[in-house]
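QUALITY CONTROL LOG
STEP: pairwise intake check
CHECKER ROLE: data steward
CRITERIA: each record must contain a sequence immediately followed by its structure tokens, with no blank fields

ENTRY 1 OF 2
RESULT FIELD BELOW
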Amino acid sequence: MHDEHNAAAGPFPAWLDHDPEQVQAALARRFPGVPSWHGEWTGSWWSMVGDRLLEAACPATLADMIQTALSATRPPPSRPDPPA
């Protein structure tokens, strides 16, 4: 029995079918103000969150990393002052 996909790697992710510019635009819509780009030479996906440079092998991982970085940089919600 011949399997078209490497069992370890699994099928190719859906994002491979999309133009990097379309993926970049989707990341920009999801994370306004957070620059993201695809490195033509590295093949990696990159983003800047504050002073942090993030690198990922695929856009889905980069989106997860951006979300985590944004959550870590947000100040905790303010609590109302206790009644006097």
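ENTRY 2 OF 2
RESULT FIELD BELOW
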Amino acid sequence: MGCAKSKDATDSPEKSLKNESVRKSQNALYVKDPTSNSRLKNRNSFNLHIISPSEGNEEASVIALYDYEGIHDGDLSFKKGDKLKIIQESGEWWNARNLGTGEEGFIPSNYVAKDNTLETQDWFFKGVSRKDAERHLLASGNKQGSYMIRDSETTKGSYSLSVRDHDPSMGDTVKHYKIRTLDNGGFYISPRITFTSLEELVNHYKKQGDGLCQKLTTSCISQKPQKPWEKDAWEIPRESLKLDKKLGAGQFGEVWMATYNKHTKVAVKTMKPGTMSVEAFLDEANIMKTLQHDKLVRLNAVVTKEEPIYIITEFMAKGSLLDFLKTDEGNKLQLPKLIDFSAQIAEGMAFIESRNYIHRDLRAANILVSQTLVCKIADFGLARIIEDNEYTAREGAKFPIKWTAPEAINFGSFTIKSDVWSFGILLMETITYGRTPYPGRCSTARHPIAFCPSLIPPAPSSAALLSANTPQNPGTLYFNPCPLLAHLQVAPEGLPLSPHHLP
């Protein structure tokens, strides 16, 4: 699954010092990829270095950004820094020749960058937003002074410098600086010193801070991108999958960690026989395949020739957000990170809305977390394209009562606004580290539509909200935000929020 450009950050302006003085598998059965004729833009903000090889030259020269060890017949292995010639562009896999060894084969397009461009520099991150820059720099492995240069979100054709800093009261933070351009093509952050190139600018601030929050140390660690899925490997043979570990069960069956063709770790969702028709299942899969965003779990392939049917997606190492928040690692997360999780989910949902879809089952159990703490929206089993601005559920359908908007429960009609309601309940799950919403009500998570109206909890009064969960009134229905808000007014940043801080 793949994602939309998030809203440009405008809450805190960047600092300026201007006032200072055709890949193929041997075993797969190839059928047409549902997105092969799509004109969708690649909206993955984490695919930092995807390029077009055919701009002006019949054969483009590229530089390898990462090591790649071929895993299929026909792959071309290479090392970081190798120079390659692109022979033919074919989707996400390109045919190339290594200019050092003379060998030819297929390479993943997101592992290379066009020669003699900024993308070949370790410190340049193309297409990364301000918020994603902060996520990268605050990730483990980076330290004070770690930095990156990225495209400016506010001024097209300009750049920004992002630097990891440390504040005794706020902890680790990221500072942003505008890199301004001169009419003659030069660059500067402070007008008292200018540079002919970005490389010269970086080298200067690596020697001395000269007004920055920190002297530049090392470039931000760049995670090796996920290899593209095999071209046209949509319907794959069941024998190519080895189910390694059962991860859980869902509406359609079980979820497994599996290995594809002995080399690629994936997640496999099985469908219980008789749950729905193959045609309906493929409808779901085709919807998932067309939704490409870095905050949505990506669908790779399906197995539908016989039951149980498999749906193969990218593997998310830390499992569901609901389970992760209850682990020791999740319990230690501070409020800013929980807010960041919520922002990531909002990015994915904004993309779904932009594509005129609804999710209908948005909750923490259907958000998956990666090894690098990236949240992605999963389980589109109830998602359907909207017709006439709403989707009316079929009679007898089941859905999560505690996350469903009252108008959807009463009338069985769902809109984008229904997902907004569910997102609000998800926020409650996140801020309370996975607590069940409306405790004591509706112990069963899913109910037939016909039974739902009688299960809607009454809306609380303002007084009830303010007095709920006090020591004198423990275990009441609603979470009382007042103690937390009072604490936030004293310490708005770096609050060591954990379950024992909650009322």
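INTAKE CHECK: passed for both entries
DESCRIPTIVE NOTE, ENTRY 2: The domain at 327-457 is CATH 1.10.510.10 (Transferase(Phosphotransferase); domain 1).
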